[in-house]
Specification:
This protein has 163 residues and is of the alpha/beta class. It has a single domain, classed as Rossmann fold. The protein is built from six helices and five strands; from the N terminus they run E-H-E-H-H-E-H-E-H-H-E. A five-stranded parallel β-sheet has the order 3-2-1-4-5, sandwiched between helices. Strand 1, helix 1 and strand 2 form a beta-alpha-beta unit. Helix 4 runs parallel beside helix 6. The longest helix is centred in the middle third of the chain and has 24 residues. The protein is globular. It starts with 21 loop residues before the first strand and ends with a strand.
Amino acid sequence: MPLGPGRSMLGETLKGWIMYKNIVLAYDGSDSGQRALLDCNELAQWSHATLSLVAVMPSTMGFVAMEGSIYDPEVEQRERSRFQAILADGLRRLADTGFTANGELLVGDSVEEITNYARKISADLIVVGHKHLDSWAARWWRGSISSALIEHAPCSVLCVITL
């Protein structure tokens, strides 16, 4: 049965026939990330899975390239604090709904780090939020982490789409 926008992808149709033991939720604090967090809660509740929440901070060289300047340890520390706060927010949101999760701040390329972490913990599922971009130029410029995850993941990937 197809599901429309705004409906949970994890409804009764999945209950009872899919069991995940280790779920990785890639969380960035965005609206689509928060939606994925909520849907991940439902799935984890039904399957009694272990949840691992990860946030991925770009590597130091990424900061240098984005800023177009030399390495600044203060910039790196500010970014690390920002990503730690995103991770803490996701863990708090999970705790508010009665779930506990392992939290991990990863550093590097998002797709590479998430897939490596999924392999490391033998994940059965990676959950990621995805927002459709309006223009072809925006899609080309930004790329799609969720699309790349599907190509490189060692397990199933659930993309929770927000409009």
